[in-house]
Every structure is written in C-alpha cells, then in structure tokens.
TrEMBL record:
It is found in: Golgi apparatus membrane. It comes from the Eukaryota. It is a peripheral membrane protein. It holds the Pfam family COG5_C. One of its GO terms (cellular component) is Golgi membrane. Residues 14-144 form the Conserved oligomeric Golgi complex subunit 5 N-terminal domain. Keywords: Golgi apparatus, Membrane. GO terms for biological process: intra-Golgi vesicle-mediated transport. Residues 209-408 form the Conserved oligomeric Golgi complex subunit 5 helical domain. The lineage of its organism: Eukaryota, Fungi, Dikarya, Ascomycota, Pezizomycotina. InterPro entries: Cog5 (IPR019465), COG5_helical (IPR048485), COG5_N (IPR049176). This is Conserved oligomeric Golgi complex subunit 5. The keyword Membrane applies.
Length: 451
C-alpha cells in the first residue's frame, strides 16, 4: 500500500526487488480516484503522480543529514580496515616478489645453464655415435678391401675362402649405410665425405668384384671326368679326390656368397627369403649348358661322324648338373645378418629347393633333358627339310643314333665317380629315372625321322 505520511515516496514499495513503475502508478491512481465515476474525475494532485528525482534527492539528503554521524563513523571504520588490509597485502606481495626473484636466480638461471649442458652433451653423444659408425665403416671397408684382393687372386690360392667373410663385411657396411639395425648410430653418415668416398671407391667396386667372382665360380663348376674339352663348363678335368674337394669348396663358398648378397628386406625371414642372385646364377649355368648342348647336338646330327664326341660332351654337362644338384641338396643356407631370426621349429632348407620351385621341376637332370628335347625336335626337322646327304645319313643311321642318345642319357644321369657327393641326386634314384628321360630324348630325334 501507498504510505500515508507527508512524503510522496513509499520507500518500502520503491525498494522492493519486484518494483514495477506501471504497477505503482496504477495503484496510486486507483487509491485516490473512483474508477466507477462517470465521467472519470482525476482528483489526484498532479505532483503525487509526477514525482521526480528531486523528491528522491531531497529524501536522501534528509536521511543522510539526520544520520550523518553514524555514516561518517562507519565510513571511517571501513577506510581504516581497508587500509590495514592493503598494508598486509603489500607486505605479502613484497614477500612473494622477493621469493620469485630468489627462485628465478636459484632455479631459472641454473636451469638455463643445465639446458645448455644437456644440449652440449646430447650433441657430443651424437658426434660420438657418428664417429663410432664412421670408424666401424672404415674398419669394415679396410677388411673388405683386403678380402676382395684375396678373392681376386687366381684359383688355387685359397681366395674362395675369403668370399663369405667379404660378403659379411659388405652386409655390415650395408647395415651401417641404411641405418637398419642401429637406430640413430648411423644418422648423418651420408653427410660425411669420407664415408661417401669409401662407398664409391671401395664398397661398390668390391661388391661388383665379389659378385662377378662368385658368378664366375658357379659358371665354371665342373666335376665330370667324361671329357676334358666339353666347353666352358668342363675346362677342368676332375681326376683326384683333392681336386673334387677343391671344386666343391669353391662352389660352396660362391653359393653362400650369392645367397648373402641377394637383396633382402629387413622384415623377411629365412623361410620367406628368395635369394635372387643365387637362383639367377644357377639358372644361367643351366641355360648355358642347354644352349651349348643344343647347338653342338644340332651340328652333330647334321654331321654324324662328330656325334659320339658331342654326346660325350653333353653327358659331361649333365653329369655336372647332377653333381650340382647333389651339392645344392647338401648345402644349407648360412645365417643372414639382415634377416629375422629363423623359426627353430621350421625344417632347415637347402639351396636346391628354391631352385626347383623356381624352375617348376622335380630334378635338375630331368629339367635339362626335357628342355633339351623340347627344342631339339625343331632342329631335327630343319635338317630333314634341307634334305641332301645329312638328311639321308641321319635317316639311315636311325638305330645307331637311338642307341647313342640312350647311352648319353644313361652316362649323363650318373654322379661323377670321384665326386663323393650324396643327397637328393644319389645314383640309385638317378638310375630309376633315366629311362624316362632317355625315351623323351630319343623321341625328340627319332620321332621326326619316322614321318
């Protein structure tokens, strides 16, 4: 309700939290007028409705004048309390400032110095690791260079024994250059000029020399004593046990070297690793034997007086292949430093199995005779198409050629007598299979003669 005192201000209503000017004015008008009067008579003095800020200011001034002493005393008390709080705060802020400055001196500066020491130590460790890697690369490079010089020596001086150590030294250098196994130890080696010179002038030429010598040793593998002039693969007649062992030793070292130097992924395992350099060298050996045998046999069939000599050379080549198969079956893969550790439960693989899988054949002699027979029929047909004395002589000596070819396959399918090899190509198994291969060879020659 509106206050009934002389003041126009209803302080209780004006100070209420839910005060509304429109509601207050409406209440004031209804309290001083009858809303049912017609016409409406607004008898409320205009000053009661249109009160202004001056009335409020007057009211405030009256109140403050009446209570001036208490207000001044309260204000003075609050000012003294605020001053006391401010003094305490300034004291605490000063203490905090001094503590921060001391902490900055004792910790911040020392931390900066410690950070510089840490950075210097880290760089020294990296430099030490890099120097150690460079030193190891130089040691391996010097070792590789000496071993390759021994490998490059002529046969008979024991140079083949240095092939595998040279391959391991080369793999060690590959690992350093690629930083596959030492983490940050090899970091930055590519920016060291000495390492670049080592790689270009020692490592790369040594790798080419080592590969060339290993591939040459495989190409020159010969253990047959049937003929001493049967092309490049029978240049050396093997006649003694010592010569046989030397040939086996050279070949084994070359095979191990080609296996180790074949490209390998670090995540590969010995079970999934494919020694491409080894397989390519062995396949080239077989292809050379096939090419030489096909060319010489085609010439001999056109000039029969040379047939016996040619068949003897072909039998010698196949004996070398039989001996190679036995050697491969008895030679197991060495430990490869770039491959994962082998599965101890997995069967140990030899060098023969991946080659047989690659050639898709059950044995190397069978592959040799069947590949030779597949290409021979067309050569015989060419001789018959040309006609003349060669064709007539070949037809008239059909039986002699048949027996000579069967004897050639029989001889070629045997292990060399002095080889001392055993394994997947032992003589008993070879004797059981040669009749089938002989029939294939005879059919490729005699078959076209009967048409």
């Amino acid at each position: 309700m509106i206050s009934t005192d002389q003041s126009y201000l209803d302080t209780t209503t004006l100070l209420a939290p839910d005060f509304s000017p429109t509601s207050y004015a409406n209440t004031l008008i209804h309290a001083t007028n009858n809303a049912s009067d017609t016409p409406l008579d607004l008898s409320t003095p205009l000053s009661r409705v249109l009160f202004d800020v001056q009335e409020v200011d007057t009211r405030i001034d009256a109140l403050t004048t009446k209570n001036a002493d208490s207000i001044v005393a309260h204000t003075q008390t609050q000012a003294q309390a605020s001053g006391h709080v401010l003094e305490e705060l300034e004291t605490q802020v000063g203490s905090l400032r001094e503590s921060y400055e001391r902490l900055e001196r004792e910790v911040g500066e020392r931390w900066e110095q410690a950070e510089q020491v840490r950075l210097a130590a880290e760089r020294m460790v990296k430099t030490l690791r890099l120097g150690r890697s460079v030193q190891r690369a130089l040691v391996l490079g010097r070792q590789l260079q000496g071993l390759v010089e021994e490998v490059s020596a002529p046969h008979g001086r024991g140079g083949e024994k240095s092939m595998v150590p040279a391959a391991h030294a080369l793999l060690g250098l590959r690992e350093l250059f690629a930083a596959t196994g030492k983490g940050e130890e090899a970091e930055g080696m590519g920016r060291v000029q000495l390492v670049t010179t080592l790689r270009n002038e020692v490592v790369n030429p040594s790798e080419r020399t080592l590969l060339s010598r290993a591939q040459q040793t495989v190409r020159e593998f010969s253990m047959s004593s049937l003929a001493s002039g049967a092309g490049s693969q029978t240049n050396t007649t093997v006649g003694t046990y010592k010569e046989t062992e030397d040939t086996k030793s050279r070949a084994t070292h070359a095979l191990h070297t080609l296996y180790l130097l074949s490209p390998a992924k670090p995540s590969a395992s010995p079970e999934t690793f494919t020694p491409t350099l080894l397989i390519n060298a062995l396949q080239t050996y077989l292809q050379t034997a096939l090419t030489s045998s096909l060319a010489s046999l085609a010439r001999a069939l056109a000039t029969l007086p040379t047939l016996d000599r040619t068949l003897l050379e072909i039998a010698a080549r196949c004996q070398n292949i039989v001996a190679l198969e036995a050697l491969l079956s008895a030679t197991h893969a060495p430990a490869h430093p770039l491959l994962a550790s082998p599965d101890p439960t997995a069967p140990t693989s030899n060098f023969l199995d991946p080659l047989l899988r690659h050639l898709d054949t059950s044995s190397l002699p069978s592959y040799f005779w069947r590949s030779l027979a597949n290409q021979l029929s067309s050569r015989v047909q060419e001789i018959l198409n040309r006609g003349g004395v060669s064709a007539r002589t070949l037809r008239s000596n059909r039986d002699k050629v048949r027996e000579a070819v069967r004897e050639c396959v029989d001889r070629g399918s045997r292990l060399p007598q002095v080889s001392g090899l055993r394994g997947g190509s032992e003589e008993g198994r070879t004797r059981r299979n040669w009749e089938r291969e002989a029939a294939v060879m005879v059919g490729s020659i005699v078959g076209p003669l009967g048409r």
